[in-house]
Amino acid sequence: xxxxxxxxxxxxxxxTEESPATRWALITVAFAGLAILVFAPLxxxxxxxxADGVAASLKSLASPDARDAIRLTLTIAAISVPLNAIFxxxxxxxxxxxxxxxxxxxxxxxxxxxxxxxxVAGLCIVLMFGANSAIGGWLxxxxxxxxxxxxxxxxxxxxxxxxxxxxxxxxxxxxxxxAEEEAALTLGASGWRTFWTVTLPNIRWALLYGVLLCxxxxxxxxxxxxxxxxxxxxxxATMPTTIEMLYQEYLSVAAFSLAAVLALLxxxxxxxKTALEIRHADQLAATHRH
Amino acid sequence: MKGPVIHRSPxxxxxxxxxxTLTMLSIVVLLPIGALLLKGANYGLAGIWETVNRERxxxxxxxxxxxxxxxxxxxxxxxxxxxWVLVRYRFPGRRLLDAAVDxxxxxPTAVAGIALTALYAPRGFFGQLAAEIGWKIAYTQWGIxxxxxxxxxxxxxxxxxxxxxxxEREVEEASATLGASRLHTLxxxxxxxxxxAALTGFALALARAVGEYGxxxxxxxxxxxxxxxxxxxxxxxxxxxxxxxxxxIGIAMLLISFAMLxxxxxxxxxxxxxxxxV
Lengths: 290, 278
Known about the structure:
The complex is a heterodimer. Chain A is mostly helical. Chain A folds into 2 domains: 18-49; 53-283, MetI-like fold. Chain A has helices spanning 3-7, 20-49, 54-61, 64-97, 103-111, 118-129, 134-141, 150-161, 163-176, 179-186, 191-220, 223-229, 239-248, 252-279. The longest helix of chain A is centred in the N-terminal third of the chain and has 34 residues, at 64-97. Chain B is mostly helical. Chain B has one domain (33-275): MetI-like (MetI-like fold, Orthogonal Bundle), CATH 1.10.3720.10. Chain B contains 12 helices and no strands. The radius of gyration of chain B is 23 Å and the shape is globular. At the A-B interface, helix 2, helix 4, helix 5, helix 6 and helix 8 of A face helix 1, helix 2, helix 3, helix 4 and helix 5 of B.
């Protein structure tokens, strides 16, 4: 036996791995699939927005329609996201700090909006608060129309984003238990003080994570808002509904410029989300099984 | 064993947190859904049936459901593949790929809708390529299918990923030691463990696709009986102030969603009983 055959390096593959060829084939399929499905549309938004140059794109963003839409969308998010955050904290506190019957049912009800079509959500708001309904008719008579006005858009936005914060906080607070709060209370802290100094610091990253996702969805919601808003220019046309109107008027650059602003927002959201997942994985529910 | 409805607890804030929770849940979610159901009750089962039992409505419901099913099936396969690649392999660009999976959640549906249309329209980048082999994508059912694959993309990958992370290598080693080929191990050891999570993701993707509106209407072409989806029919009825018909179709869609929610819960109960976790 010659020494050469002994010196020949033999590489073994672990029995729990796929062959390198299979591995690279799967990675290629994953990249190709996401390139076609995700990266291509994202790039298309910016290519179409800049089709006539940066100046044309910026000019269309400075038009009154676009400015009104941006202002309205920011206002809607500024009202509906904090309200949903308050709901999420209250619901998570109620569900995780107390024992009561029907808890699982309550959680199912909170999750309900995720399985209802946004268009059906909008329809529900119209039927509940529209001018034809008992409550809506009375409110219109008092001078407070809900549907085809800002309150309707806020309600529709809150409906579709309702579970985000609660669903993020509940698993985190279940995992953390009640011992720290009980200790604070035993030492004489008031309920509010316990919440601000013990609970909130423990859940802040999870809260931020939920608010981030809630905000992205709130600013981008289209189906539910399209139903309740009436899409009145300068009054109830949000960014997504304005994109639709501009697109249907063949104002491609204007539509895609506004779309590019929302796409940038989505990218920033993903960036912050990934940063949170890397730095605070232990305090997030999304990175655990629940 | 019937205890009190709410157990006594030293924790503060019971009244406040319960009050906020139930009040907001009622105003934002329960009362509006109740209003839809009440409208349906007043309209009567016969009325709902009369509205739904028209060729155009059946066509829209069938189209929405059928294409959603196909899109969710594709996502089931691709989602498991994605989850496996992201958890098990290390390669440059993995973080980017991982973040990109969430883009369909983050990108507003109207933005996705016009972007997909720009790509797949006859003069778009992919549209031109397809046109060369005589394949029309935008403004046909293919376009709807692609939009539904896009919106459902993250669900299966995100439900399966944590399960793969927790699979213990010992199980695979044992299988290999006993002489199983890698393929055999994947097929008979790994896949059964992923199945419940994959099915949950599949049902979530399906539910999302059936109700999807924003990303579909631009690319669909919206031709009655051919490319008209169920949510669009509701909008059309509302624009004609035909609230009864809108409510009837809305209830039909709500029932489909509830049936799928029930299916998700049953899958989770079944998997908890089988393997002890979801």
